[in-house]
């Protein structure tokens, strides 16, 4: 392990002058994942120079960028361009040094659930130019790449082949463009939200994978160039990551990083290679249900400097070789991982901790050993590289085929696929950058890469956020308890079951006996197994009790609603019967025609005046003697004890109010027939008065309300009524109106 003092880099541009370390430690709560020796800085930090601003800060000429969306109309904003998932078509053009408009990027709409695939086409290099090589790549737009000049066309000619991707970076695209528009920024945002994200570069040797990820060779040489615009995606992502961390002031983040390479099928720790470069084992974790590298060194990264030092150290230690097509060819696949643990305050005093990560994977390039003229050690490396890429190819093509997706995927056939398994088909979010050379001499490799990339585009993933399972369980139980509690509260108040709704009013059997103690999630990790189990048990018991109570309340409400309905139906039946009876008695004034008590009238009077309708009506009506109905009929009516419900008319009370509503908030008034007034007054169940007869109103005016006594001898209809009265505490007061009784 190399230990060097000093700070190489500092905070990103646009920062508020606070060190990322401070933002990491802003929370007063120590992180449960924080390691005990966390105070020490990354041992990898090197020189004393710090980054003061973005690598592009020193760009002399301001960029002129023209962003176009579909149909060549200017796009609304830079944000709406291909950078983020789910974006639409678009293109970006930029004025070059000669003030000519040059297109640099085109994009097609991106779907949320598939691997995001972008293509970067590098410019022809000097070697290719010198040998007179020409470009076979054309850019029709909308994220398409057209490969021209493929042998095997009709009559021995050439045939073009068209491919579509999410984004295509044309040769003039800069390193910053790749960060802005590849979807990398979204990936970083998702990693902060707890997703496992992977960005990997794929392509033939010399196609620009390392250039895209980490920049050209020598960038991190003896004299570091922190402001260089040649910095690759990894460096820029680190800056963006810290910018985001600084913005999220309420979240506590802890970052760690590791860097490994797979060289000749051996996993080497690039941060701790040792003199013998002893390989590490790749094992299966039952708990995490994934492969991991045993004893891999992870470095705490409190500051941006620490992360960049990790990058620098890894680049220094990785295997590089020279062959015919690339003087600085990567001889291994490398995986740089940034682990992001965050703690965010959530509702109910709970802290949510999430574990996201970002893998930057620089694959070694596939090579035709004939072309690269590899021999000896380089040949062995090339064979291993090609073999593992072949396995990766199998996995990609199986995963992209809907029929084979659920069958065996040969992840175990190489270390690379074992470690990428999760990124390819798991619960992660993946960005694939396919790098190609435009040269005619590389046409078959280019076609291979484009086919690979087209297949990868079909792979579906199901991103999920990683949470501590114990916290997730407790949080979900807490949430459920809260939901059930508020649902019960609502039901109680709707049914008016318990006045005051306090626990003291609850029947003993419904009272929640166990209330789990307040959980300090900070101390959760310190809890012993049995304590934790007890805590979970308490939550589950409370949950269960609430669930039971909830269902009891639901069923009692249903019973009451059914009873109510029954009573109403019976009322209507009796009403009809009464009408029939009245028609026999030739228009008794007691049987009104059916126009409803007008809603307007109901609205125009308040509750007091409503009451007055009944109590202070036209007193003169008392003097009138009600018309008599034949005794035989009256007897029949008395036998049946015809009663009905009315709802106390309320201001603004709607007609046809739903049963549920009226059952929950209206008072029921019963009107009892008696010999003295000669029959019942009927008001239908929607609360409307079944009379337009002023005569009848006057009769009613002389009446008084009284609390009805349950009549045990009532016929069947009154059984329902009894139930209602038994449950009167649910519907509100049940009041009967008689001439004899006073309230
Ligand atoms: N977009 C680009 N613009 C300018 N130069 C580029 C670009 N892409 C690649 N190059 C240059 O081409 C050369 C080869 O690139 P690089 O080493 O990144 O290829 P590679 O795909 O990583 O190859 P290998 O698989 O052998 O490692 C480098 O000198 C690099 O700087």
From TrEMBL:
It comes from the Eukaryota. Keywords: ATP-binding, Cytoplasm, Cytoskeleton, Microtubule, Motor protein, Nucleotide-binding. Gene3D superfamilies: Kinesin motor domain. This is Kinesin-like protein. GO terms for molecular function: ATP binding; ATP hydrolysis activity; microtubule binding; microtubule motor activity. One of its GO terms (biological process) is microtubule-based movement. It is found in: Cytoplasm, Cytoskeleton. Residues 56-66 have a biased composition (Basic and acidic residues).
């Amino acid at each position: 392990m190399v230990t060097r003092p000093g700070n190489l880099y500092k905070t990103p541009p646009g920062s508020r002058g606070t060190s990322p370390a401070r933002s990491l430690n802003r929370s007063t709560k120590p992180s449960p994942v924080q390691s005990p020796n966390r105070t020490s800085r990354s041992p990898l930090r090197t020189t004393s120079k710090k980054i003061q601003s973005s690598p592009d800060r020193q760009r002399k000429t301001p960029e002129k960028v023209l962003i176009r969306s579909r149909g060549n109309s200017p796009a609304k904003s830079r944000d709406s361009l291909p950078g983020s998932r789910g974006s639409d078509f678009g293109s970006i053009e930029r004025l070059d040094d000669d003030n000519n408009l040059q297109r640099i990027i085109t994009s097609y709409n991106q779907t949320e659930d598939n691997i995001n695939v972008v293509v970067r086409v590098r410019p022809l290099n000097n070697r290719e130019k010198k040998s007179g090589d020409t470009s076979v790549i054309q850019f029709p737009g909308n994220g398409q790449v057209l490969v021209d000049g493929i042998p095997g066309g009709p009559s021995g000619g050439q045939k073009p082949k068209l491919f579509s991707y999410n984004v295509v970076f044309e040769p003039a695209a800069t390193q910053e463009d790749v960060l802005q528009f590849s979807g990398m920024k979204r990936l970083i945002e998702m990693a902060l939200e707890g997703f496992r994200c992977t960005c990997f570069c794929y392509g033939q040797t010399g196609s620009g994978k390392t250039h895209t990820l980490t920049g050209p060779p020598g960038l991190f040489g003896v004299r570091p160039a922190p402001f260089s615009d040649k910095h690759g995606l990894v460096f820029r992502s680190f800056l963006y990551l810290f910018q985001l961390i600084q913005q999220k002031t309420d979240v506590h983040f802890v970052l760690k990083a590791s860097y490994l390479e797979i060289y000749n099928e051996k996993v080497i720790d690039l941060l701790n290679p040792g003199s013998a470069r002893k390989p590490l084992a790749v094992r299966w974790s039952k708990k995490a249900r994934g492969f991991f590298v045993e004893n891999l060194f992870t470095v705490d990264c409190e500051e941006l400097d620490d992360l960049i030092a990790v990058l620098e150290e890894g680049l220094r230690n990785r295997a590089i070789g020279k062959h015919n097509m690339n003087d600085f060819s990567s001889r291994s696949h490398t995986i740089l991982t940034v682990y992001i643990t965050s703690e965010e305050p959530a509702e109910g005093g709970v802290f949510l901790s999430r574990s996201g990560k970002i893998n930057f994977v620089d694959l070694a390039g596939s090579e035709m050993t004939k072309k690269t003229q590899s021999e000896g050690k380089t040949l062995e490396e090339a064979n291993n590289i090609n073999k593992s890429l072949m396995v990766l190819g199998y996995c990609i093509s199986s995963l992209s085929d809907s029929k084979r997706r659920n069958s065996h995927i040969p992840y175990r056939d190489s270390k690379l696929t074992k470690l990428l398994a999760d990124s390819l088909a798991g619960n992660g979010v993946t960005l694939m950058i396919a790098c190609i050379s435009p040269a005619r001499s590389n046409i078959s490799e280019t076609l291979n890469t484009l086919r690979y990339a087209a297949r990868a585009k079909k792979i579906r993933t199901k991103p999920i956020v990683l949470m501590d399972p114990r916290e997730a369980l407790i949080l979900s139980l807490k949430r459920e308890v809260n939901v059930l509690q508020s649902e019960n509260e609502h039901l109680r108040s709707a049914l008016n079951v318990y006045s005051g709704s306090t626990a003291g009013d609850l029947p003993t059997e419904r009272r929640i006996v166990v209330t789990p103690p307040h959980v300090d999630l900070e101390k959760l990790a310190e809890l012993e197994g049995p304590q934790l189990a007890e805590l979970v048990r308490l939550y589950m018991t409370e949950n269960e009790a609430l669930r039971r109570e909830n269902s009891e309340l639901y069923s009692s409400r249903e019973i009451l609603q059914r009873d109510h309905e029954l009573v109403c139906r019976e009322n209507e039946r009796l009403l009809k019967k009464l009408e029939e009876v009245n028609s026999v008695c030739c228009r008794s004034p007691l049987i009104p025609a059916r126009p409803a008590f007008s809603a307007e009238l109901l609205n125009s009077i308040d509750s007091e005046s409503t009451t007055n309708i009944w109590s202070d009506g036209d007193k003169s009506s008392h003097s009138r003697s009600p018309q008599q109905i034949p005794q035989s009929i009256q007897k029949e009516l008395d036998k049946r004890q015809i009663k009905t419900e009315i709802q106390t008319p309320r201001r603004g009370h709607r007609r046809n109010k739903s049963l549920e509503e009226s059952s929950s908030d209206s008072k029921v008034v019963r009107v009892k027939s008696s010999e003295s007034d000669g029959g019942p007054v009927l008001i239908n169940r929607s609360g409307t008065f079944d009379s337009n007869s002023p005569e009848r109103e006057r009769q009613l005016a002389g009446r008084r309300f009284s609390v009805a006594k349950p009549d045990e001898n009532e016929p069947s209809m009154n059984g329902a009524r009894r139930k209602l009265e038994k449950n009167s505490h649910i519907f509100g007061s049940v009041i009967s109106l008689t001439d004899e009784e006073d309230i």
